[in-house]
Each structure stands twice: as structure tokens, then as C-alpha cells.
Fold:
Amino acid sequence: MCLVRPAILLVFISALNTYASSPLAGRWEGSVQIPGSGFNLVLDLDQPDGKEWIGSVIIPGLGVKGAPLAELVMSDSAISGTIKGALTGPRTGNTTIKAALTNEGQLNGEMFEAGNSAPFALRKTGPPQVDVPRTQTWFAN
Structure:
């Protein structure tokens, strides 16, 4: 009985340290400002194994749900990556994002597409909900 309490406390402290060491992990929501209007942006970032970062993007106004973030480059307070599968075309190329965490806890950055850029500001709203791409399975008959 005496060993159970220290073990629970150790697990709790370990969980807090993991969360505290990854300030970019979470769900980030805000808007991208383009001339004449803007659109909502949801960015999910996670480091489930403690090593590799994964991420996905939701842009409700453009019908983008769970587009994976690839080529992620992460530091303690900055991110860059490419949005795969969405907003990509032969004329526009890839859409990329670059952002940095501010002292106020906001993720400020820019989205780049076809030589254009649009600033965004996101606030952390909760734990990450990364849409992981489905793996294709083959069934033999």
C-alpha cells in the first residue's frame, strides 16, 4: 500500500513533465488573414512516441479535414511543414506553414502558397486530435 502512492505520484509527475516539455503539442485554433477576408484554421500537433512529431490541419471553410502535415521541422518554440493533399495543385504547388510560439502563448505564423503568404494567429484550445492517415490494407480471398 505504501509503494502504490509513490508510484502513482511518479507517473503523475512524469506525465506533467512530458506535457510541459512540448509546448507546441496540442490543438491550435484561429484564423488566417487573406486580403478581403479570412478563414478558420485548426492545427493539431502531437509527439505520441516522444520522438517523431505528427500533425494535421483542418480548414472548415475550404473543406479541408485532417490534411496531414509532412516535412515537419520542430523546435521548442517553432514549427514548419507542408500541408499534404489539400490546397495543392499543378499551378499552386505545395502549401506550407511556418510559425513560432510567442511569449503570450500564441502561435503566430504565415501560410505560403503559389508565391503568396497570409499571416495567422492561433491559440491552444486543448489536447491534440491529429487525424492519422489511414493505412491501406489488402484482403486476400
The chain has one helix and eight strands. The domain at 19-126 is CATH 2.40.128.120 (Lipocalin). The helical segments are 4-20. The chain has a mean pLDDT of 81.
